[in-house]
Description:
The protein is an alpha+beta fold.
Amino acid sequence: MRLGGPAGFRSDRELIAAAENLLKGELKIPNYDLWKFTVPFAATDLKAAPAPLQFASLIVPEILLDAYGLTGREEFFIMAREFIAGFAEHESAAWLPEEFLWDDHATAARIPVLIRFWHLYRMRPDFDPRVARIVLQLLARSGQLLAKPSHYTFRTNHGVMQNLGLLHLCIAIPAVPGAHGWCETALDRLPEQMRYFVNVEGVVLEHSAGYHVTGMYLLGMSLRFLTLLDRPIPSDWADKYWKARAYYGQLRRPDGTLPMYGDTGSTAGTPPVTAPDESGRSAALQQARDWRPDSSFSLFPIAGHAIWWRGLANWPDSRDLSQTVATWANFPGHGHKLADEMSVVLWSGGQTWVTNSGYWPYRLWGAEHAGGWEGANAPHLSGESKSSARTAELLGYGDNGQVTILDLRRRGPAGYAARRQLVQLGSELWLVLDQIQDQTSRRSITLWTVDPALAVVQEPSASAFRLESRGSGATMSAHFLASEGTEIKTFRGSRQPFAGWVVIDQTPTPATAFRIEQPSGNSWALALWVPEKRGGAGAVSAPPEMLDWTSGDRWKLRIPLRRGNVVLQRIDGEVLVQEGTGALNTVRVTMAGAPDISAQRAVIRSAFEAVEIQFKKKYRDLYHYRLRISYLLLAILVIQEMAWFLVRKVIQRHRFALRTALSSAWLIMGAWIIFVYLER
């Protein structure tokens, strides 16, 4: 049960090779460039490491201890010991925070590594009391820091990690001074956080498929720790956990990848899970082999997600599967929120077709853009801030197994409103219809980004494109149609404007993006995505045509397919799909209205605010603010004394009065800094 980010080695052989590189001072972990560091440890490497969080989380000794467990090679253990001792001595002598030295996540992640080292070291013949003291003192300081109210990251999964680090410590080494109190602190804080960390639908409320997996893993660890402490698992925790597993099953594709909405990476992986029983106990976490969606259509209105599948009877054969994911989640104050409400991810035939930028490494160029509207395919105002005041909601939905429709709306700043209708017919086509309304005349933008593995060729029509997978050869046609005044442009790996980027294996990778710019006043835009089957069946034979447009509730569209025309029509709460002529060839789908989720949302918000009142003012890292104001005050003081020296003879008679006035000014300035500037 680890709290650091997974190294991602694909095999024991790869891990052992990485440990051998560490002996030479070379850190090579998947998705990162090889980096040379000082053996066994140097404090300067905390700032220089390309993966500073992992380095401060003791990933070097973690890899070495893993390799030692596999091989028994002493050189691995000895270097792990020397690295830990060097790190501990530096950490104990530090006066100021350095990079991730006292970071909440890194501090929690060290606990399992140090405990594992202690488990191996305490009975060795080369046991040295000096090293033992250093390690135990580092554990004790880490426990003190994790329990400190001013360091508690209550908003995100980091707070859960902090509590789990404390539980891990007090279970493994209860004799460490303070361990009992830390355990009680964690057991007091965890129930408060669980009220808003995972909702009653089992969804981790951190706006991301990737962080749902992280949160599910942490919840599973929480259940196991309660069992090890011989405490019963709360029934609502167990219920949330089983639902969290089910939600993960809906997200996970046969190859283990996840739809990239929010801060979600491209790498496949399956977390270990547990199974709480009826007696309120939970077994050790282990890998589960069989993951499969349990429903073809799943709606999570409280969390703000919808997922549906086609072809589940053929699971896990990806060739006949398709997955559609839409998100409109927004929980203010919760972790990892990107500007992406109403974005969608389309996957079929084992290939991602339409996606978002995904998890963008924070230190790389473009992170600010990727976290904003430019990193998602949701409609937004030109220049709209990622922190704009806004709300998103589900208006309605319908599904009969063959036709699925989702109707969403987002209200943005100064009267801007975007409405998105997402429709899938069978497994052969998706259409996304956006309507934009505004109180003033502005421009609205939608950035459709496709997977980097796709080659894109423009068709004879200026608004039609052919997408082909370089790996599988699968193809799709994309068509765009819009009201007057709309511009359609294509970008690939563009920095200005930011467009056409997807993060693959921690690396921002150029991809094709279609930028739709339309007037914000009562305009509409259609994106049609049609996977092409062998022999061309199902492909679009001519551009789609909007036969009638009255509003988002009343419109009529014709899609010319090679097998014949398909006409889609919306009349208020009903969607009609007609192939050929006559009533017998018409399918009607009656839409259901959105359920009332106000009470459940209020419960989540109330639970969050109750903890926020306890910790908001306490948890603020003011080091950089204090450093900035200290430099400013020093500069003011130098200027003041230089001026005083230059005019000292002129002001001799008023020296006392001026010094008194300056002292008063410094007092006023100090009060402003303490009570205003640092309290903002």
